[in-house]
Design brief:
about 325 residues; mainly beta; 5-stranded mixed β-sheet
């Protein structure tokens, strides 16, 4: 089945629904978000991962939340940073963005985690038969092994399209922060990845504009091939934050991203900073039960945030929905 996707309609018709997750506290540097929404169409289950963070120890682990309606979520398990460090066999300073994917061949759940292992960020994989765990380590699957991602290969958007894993990941060269790029990868099994490199944008070499070009959201099938829909981060204001939302068709053979649209995200709630509403992370998922698009963002709170920055913000997860006739 070929999906008919109208990303502009999703953006235009989005309506704020409510708060999904509050931060661990309302002290500066306290966040929740950087997770992934997985909807199980067979068992009618909603699974949402999250990274709790506080200013001192930073990202402290990965949470898994459950819902039977996509509105109210209950915390069902927590994988702490210390346990992840034992699995990885190395010191882990922080955990950031994570992705939850059900492997189409095995039915197992793949949980990808961005780990700060001291001087670089890499992507680590654990698997389980149940989103609640227990989790078994597979290892580091996306590493800092290219010049363009020698400092960071992390914060991935991963989806399976027609049986193929596709990923768009943050790539940073050593000594080049805050300049950041987006790299394109594919995999047959979600474990062994092929790096296609830094895709061109409309045929032109990728350049930070002015500080970054980062994509975070979801990759969905479309009539034109795989299409990314989500946030577009183009600058660093003491942190990689954004006020843009867009869509790109992904040309795997040509290693190119064709822009469909990009527009400014205007806050639709009292929980979003008026100038910098989103801290990069986003989910855009079609709900097969309600025929709505669920958009989850890690929003920067305007009341408790002292200033934009990793230890001065307060972030929470908000949900928008868009009813699109296709």
């Amino acid at each position: 089945m070929v999906w008919v996707v109208c990303p502009q309609c999703i953006f235009r018709l989005r309506r704020f629904v409510g708060v999904v997750q509050d931060p661990p506290s309302f002290e500066p540097g306290s966040w929740r978000g950087a997770g992934d929404l997985l909807i199980d169409p067979v068992n009618r289950e909603y699974w949402l991962t999250s990274r709790p963070r506080v200013a001192g120890p930073r990202g402290t682990g990965v949470e898994v939340w459950y819902s039977n309606n996509g509105e109210q979520y209950t915390l069902v398990s927590f994988l702490p940073k210390e346990e992840v460090a034992k699995m990885a066999g190395t010191n882990v300073l922080s955990i950031e963005n994570n992705q939850l994917i059900q492997d189409p061949l095995t039915g197992k759940y793949n949980l990808y985690m961005s780990l700060d292992v001291g001087g670089r960020w890499e992507t680590f994989l654990v698997t389980s038969d149940d989103p609640r765990g227990p989790w078994s380590p597979v290892g580091f699957v996306i590493r800092t092994d290219r010049d363009y991602d020698s400092a960071e290969a992390r914060d991935c958007t991963i989806n399976v399209i027609d049986g193929r894993y596709i990923a768009l990941c943050k790539a940073v060269r050593q000594g080049d922060h805050p300049h950041a790029y987006t790299e394109l990868l594919t995999s047959k099994d979600g474990v062994n990845w092929v790096k296609l490199g830094l895709p061109t944008i409309d045929g032109k070499p990728q350049r930070p504009m002015p500080d970054a070009f980062l994509l975070n959201g979801d990759i969905v099938p479309s009539a034109y091939g795989p299409m990314f829909i989500g946030t577009v981060t183009t600058f660093a204001h003491n942190a990689h934050v954004t006020k843009y939302f867009g869509a790109y068709v992904i040309d795997l053979k040509g290693v190119n991203l064709e822009e469909v649209f990009m527009a400014e995200w205007k806050p639709g709630s009292m929980y979003e900073h008026p100038e910098y509403p989103i801290h990069t992370y986003c989910n855009v998922v079609k709900d097969p039960f309600t025929n709505e698009w669920r958009i989850l963002i890690e929003a920067i709170d305007p009341r408790y945030t002292k200033e934009i920055g990793v230890n001065t913000e307060v972030d929470r997860v908000l949900q928008y929905k868009a009813k699109v006739t296709e």
